[in-house]
Amino acid sequence: MPAAKKLSPIQLTPDQRVVLVRKDPDALHIVTETGHPLYQRRAHNDPPAWMVQSALDNGIIPPIKIRKGPVVAGLQPWDVVVGRMRVKSARAANNIRR
After folding, report:
1. pLDDT score at 18
2. Which of 98, 97, 88, 10 is nearest to 49 (CA)?
3. Range list of β-strands (E), 25-82
4. What is the pLDDT of residues 20-56, one digit of tens each?
5. What is the pLDDT of residues 45-98, one digit of tens each?
6. CB 30 within 8 A of CB 42
């Protein structure tokens, strides 16, 4: 029986889109509600151009920390705990590749 393939936390979809922790960055929720415990003002900022270019060139190497959020309208989003700008950079890189 062949050994199980070890998955990297950074994956590319067949169309070369960056996927973090085997989750599509577009499917991750960045908290922008001011009363939420994960809220940070910088969540409204755009990622710097150098970070988007790095995501295009190398992917996202440092891990993104996520957790299941509360159920809203029957869906349970994944909230980004650490790595908001990395997620935004991956989204921007994906938009460039499309």
Report:
1. 53
2. 88
3. 28-29, 65-68, 78-82
4. 456 788 888 899 989 988 899 988 999 999 999 999 9
5. 999 999 999 999 988 888 888 888 888 888 888 889 899 999 999 999 999 987
6. no
Cα 79 to chain center, whole Å? 10
Residues 6+ apart with CB under 8 A from 17: 24, 94, 97, 98
DSSP letter at 23 equals B
Q: Enter the tokens of residue 50.
A: 């150098």
Length of the chain: 98
Q: Which residues contact 23 (CB under 8 A, 6 or more apart)?
A: 66, 78
